[in-house]
């Protein structure tokens, strides 16, 4: 009887159930904006229906003569197509059914999907177990350090990679700032694996690990990453609540104290915007954990690398101003050397340059913050591709993407270990 009453109580109690979002018949458009009128037309469209901007991340970053990618829900695609045609805007549809493309992303084989794999996208639980395994199996090369907790109280760990003796130069590298950029965490895992596998075999890696350490944060935005696996594949921000708003999350790459919140159109201060910068600089526990850790190790951190996707770019400060960084020439020269090395493997073309003048101005970014803190070799990678797959890079491209990116990372790291004091 008690069981029956308990069961009835469960039936009568309101249950909050969040189902995994599907994207059936949703489309992704690519539009080339030809002139000022078309730019204004696109802004009008964005004000009439909800557009999820993929590249660039906001309608306010769209430039004349450049392409823009955005997602449209299934019930608004006909309206969007008619609007573009009526305004004679050049466009093509990249994805006709986004849900199908999401499912195609998992092309790494159907067998043994519950096992961890470097050539598949791994859920957060697999990544945490992998970190523990790597630290336990390789105690002379890897140690695991907790640097804080996320908004949802998940522990954040960095892996210290390198010979565990003496004070050395350090590169801090993070992946997975934006939840939907799955190729990014895949690269950080690949990097750690290759460091361990090739130490004492590859002379460049051996030199690096003997003379410097890497602090690797495999997933920066853990809560968002989990949400992108379990509820919404296209989620970008973290999962913090915002006061006076039903909209969830902050863009962690707009939450750093580097001209934070600098925005003439207030979109950064709208919690419903994908680029919402938070209530204040370092308002988010994830940002605070990273900045506190880096500040505590500033004396030895000589390089900062953050991994994003997509668009095949290697960028450096500044983003918040078009003024050149004091060592712009060195950064530009090193970026060119890095992308040339990357190109040498599969002929993958990368653009390189300062953020504000190469893509668009943006404030509150981690790479600008790191640079302003004194880390003068600070870079952001935007990995594959340039629009065929966008955020849905298939698992079959993880290995080539990671292999070519390793070459670029080695160039930057070798420069730091050899020349930077």
Description:
The chain has helices at residues 2-12, 36-48, 77-86, 98-104, 124-137, 183-198, 203-211, 222-230, 285-296, 328-346, 355-358, 366-372, 398-419; strands spanning 27-32, 51-55, 67-72, 90-95, 142-149, 155-161, 169-175, 212-217, 301-309, 313-316, 351-354, 377-383. Helices cover 36% and strands 18% of the residues. By secondary structure, the protein is of the alpha/beta class. The chain is globular and about 65 Å long. The chain has an 8-stranded mixed β-sheet with strand order 5-6-8-7-9-12-10-11, with helices on both faces. A hairpin with a 5-residue loop joins strand 5 and strand 6. It has 13 helices and 12 strands. One of its GO terms (cellular component) is extracellular space. Belongs to the peptidase M14 family. Residues 120-416 form the Peptidase M14 domain.
Number of helical runs?
A: 13
- Total beta strand runs: 12
Strand order of the largest sheet: 5-6-8-7-9-12-10-11
Average pLDDT: 92
What is the assembly state of the chains in this entry? single chain
Which regions have little confidence, pLDDT < 50, spanning 5+ residues? 1-17
Distance between the termini: 75 Å
Rounded Rg? 22 Å
C-alpha geometry: globular
Helix and strand composition category: alpha/beta
Bin the helical content: 25-40%
Strand content: 15-25%
Order of helices and strands: HEHEEHEHHEEEHHEHHEEHEHHEH
Give the biggest beta sheet.
8 strands, mixed
Organism: Python bivittatus
Protein name: Mast cell carboxypeptidase A
Cofactor: Zn(2+)
GO biological process, one term: proteolysis
